[in-house]
Amino acid sequence: MNPNIHLPYLATVTGIRSECSDTKTFDVRIKDPKEAKLFVSRPGQFVEASVFGAGEAPFGLTTSPREPGVMTFTIRACGRVTDAFHKLAVGDEVGIKGPLGNSFLDKIDSRGKDVLVIGGGIGLPPLRSMIHYILDRRADYRDFTIIYGARTPELQMYKGELAQWAKRPDLTLLQTVDVADPGWKGYVGVVTTLFNKLKLDIPNTVVYTCGPPIMIKFAIVELVKLGLPDKQIVSTLERYMKCGVGKCGHCCIGHKYVCTEGPVFDYGEIKGLAEEAF
């Protein structure tokens, strides 16, 4: 592990894929092989990534670690740093600090249980790290269901991967959009409209969720109505982060700092902060 996670590694962009009109996924590799061995992440963690001359920002890691020093993150262009990332090309250099924060694995041991993942829009990327982790260890988990909602089909993340997941016999994928286009054949409506299609073994189900605040709020409300205990509902609140080290106060929600105490929390930890968080 990196002895000082707040010192940046020099890394190279090895791949760029467009997800939709304003969002791209970046594959990045730490250049120095010795330093690369120190970068070992866990699902749910994040990095502070920098474009030299533009600044740095936090981004959730989107893949389960399979090789030290190799990472993927998905970025929506919405400001100075993210716009600078969107101007990069394969072979360009960036700075990487991390891995930072806690992991989905720190909240509850979901091995041997049913797993339900609920994602909305750009909230799917951080959940993807846990999805990959489970798929890499599929025999350790029971029923696996993914619910994913987006505003429109065009704004879905990882369209090719969604198509692959839909064909897998060892998971159930339910997709919905708020507004359909002529080619859309799936469900239309918010993600909670798909809950009536679930048959949950409540004592043995763990839920991971991330998405727009309003989606998380109402998804949790419905899950609680179904009887899910607080500890079995896990969410990542990474959207609040900025500096990543608890100094700027941007991510302070009540008495919690998302970047240093999270970004992953179970509902029992955040329900008293629900009004501020969601």
Write structural notes for this entry:
The chain has 2 domains: 9-100, Translation factors (Elongation Factor Tu (Ef-tu), domain 3); 104-277, 3-Layer(aba) Sandwich (Rossmann fold). Helices cover 21% and strands 31% of the residues. It has helices at residues 33-36, 80-86, 124-136, 159-167, 213-225, 258-261, 267-270, 274-277, and strands at 9-20, 23-30, 46-51, 55-60, 70-76, 93-100, 114-120, 144-150, 172-177, 187-188, 205-210, 233-236, 252-253, 256-257, 264-266. The strands form 3 sheets. The protein has a 7-stranded mixed β-sheet with strand order 10-9-8-7-11-12-15, with helices on both faces. The chain has a 6-stranded antiparallel β-sheet with strand order 4-3-6-1-2-5. The mean pLDDT is 92.
What is the top-level CATH class of the largest domain? Alpha Beta
Number of helices: 8
Written as H for each helix and E for each strand, in order along the chain, the element string is: EEHEEEHEEHEHEEEHEEEHEHH
Strand content: 25-35%
Task: Tell me the radius of gyration.
Answer: 18 Å
Order of strands across the widest beta sheet?
10-9-8-7-11-12-15
Overall body shape: globular
Q: Report the strand count.
A: 15
Please identify the structural class as seen in this structure: alpha/beta
What is the arithmetic mean of pLDDT?
92
Helix content: 10-25%
Low-confidence sequence ranges = none
User: Under CATH, the topology of the largest domain is which?
Assistant: Rossmann fold
Give the count of structural domains: 2
For CATH, the homologous superfamily of the largest domain is named as Nucleotide-binding domain of ferredoxin-NADP reductase (FNR) module
Distance between the termini: 34 Å
Biggest sheet record: 7 strands, mixed
Q: What is the CATH architecture term of the largest domain?
A: 3-Layer(aba) Sandwich
